[in-house]
Amino acid sequence: MSELQLLTWMPLVPLLATAGVIATDKSPNVREAVTIIAGVILFALVVTLAANIDWDNPTTLVLAEPLPGLRLAFTPEPLGLLFALVASFLWPITTIYSIGYMRSHKEENQTRFYAAFAVSIAAVMGIALSANMLTLFLFYEILTLSTYPLVAHAGNDKARRAGRVYLGILIGTSVGFLLLAMIWTWHVAGTLTFTQGGVFSDEVSPVVLSVLLALYVFGTGKAAVMPFHRWLPAAMVAPTPVSALLHAVAVVKAGVFTILKVSVYIFGIDTIADLAVSDWLVGIAALTIVLASAIALRKDNFKARLAYSTVSQLSYITMGAMLGIAAGAIGGGLHIAMHAFGKITLFFCAGAVFVTAHKSKISELNGIGRRMPWTMGAFAIGAVSMIGVPPFAGFISKWYLVGGALQTEQWIAVGAIVISTLLNAAYFMPIVYAAFFKEEDPQHSHGEHGEAPLPIVLALTVTALATGLIFFFPGVPLTLVDQMVGG
Hints:
Family: Belongs to the CPA3 antiporters (TC 2.A.63) subunit D family.
Shape: globular
Main location: membrane
Strand order of the largest sheet: 1-2
Number of strands: 2
Keywords: Cell membrane, Membrane, Transmembrane, Transmembrane helix
Number of domains: 1
Low-confidence stretches: none
Structural class: mainly alpha
Distance between the termini: 28 Å
Subcellular location: Cell membrane; Membrane
Radius of gyration: 21 Å
InterPro entries: CPA3_Na-H_Antiporter_D, ND/Mrp_TM
Order of helices and strands: HHEEHHHHHHHHHHHHHHHHHH
């Protein structure tokens, strides 16, 4: 299959899966089989593209040209392929998890859930393959709209309020800031095409570049940089598979992917390094990292703690992009993948506990590890990876991020990583300790139950194993992010 055909089919496969899911509404087994098969096919397509692409002469697929010189187009590049690999690999695994969760919890509107999930994956493929900011913006907005029904899935007042916050912040920031930054970039540079080294000439003033960079960072609301982070904890009213989609597979990764891609291909790493505003943005990201970690420490609700942990971890990537050095960009790119596997494991485990033991508070989890050893063992692996301890994936990306911060003498970044690492340990490890070493509280008895349903356990086991395997075999992500910075 040619590169052009692969670029065509990658977003089409999940769209066809959407049609298949809707058509098989009355046959749940067939509906879910369609989703899993589509996920496997999509992953095979992405792997094929990654294995055969000619980086010296990548193919461009033009979808449309709404204005002269302004095209909707796909052109593969290394960071986008890494994002596509992660999302396409986790889609069928999340589907398997969803089968166990949605059926055990007797969720309504399951066809709508699987259909919206498939559309969101199609949007992710569009974002990952975007040749320019116009294409990325289009699919970024499609992702926001397609995930809204998932956030508001429960249909109650709380879910509808969360959906309004979700749409309000994400569309407000993208239209108010991101779109303005794009139009301004077009006016100044005459192009929105992603270009190695950036698109701005030396004639553009540092003041203009500084304002533009700030607009891009705060306009990408999906990156959850404070103060535009509230949508993420609010969205935790959604079912756990949706939380996994938001935090690991698609939405937040689309945000930090956009910031990193803009920093490398619109501004260029060297330009970032020369802008004084980048130091302020490093500081804001560092503040987000530490404050979100401190808030997570105080949360007793399982998913709320994980949500604020995500807010913190995302700003590692933003901070890496703003360091203006290859090591920072590499660390940020790696953290897109490393965080995905660790955090999806944690959310899978939280959902397994909720479905099986009906517990949503951390204070109620004493002794649950003896009843659910696979689930809480996987949680321990995900937690250690989030802390950044070898031999798990999170260590690798943190290594590059700390290295980049030390090279640029950004001591606030070094401090933020050190403090947040300690806070990560403080809010994750007591959960593991209580699950395995504390006696079950009679007031919060877990009842008579064992492990979660098999599809749930299977999914969280696979992602936990992947979190360890990436540490020992980091070749693919390392090669791609090195290629991204021109290595």
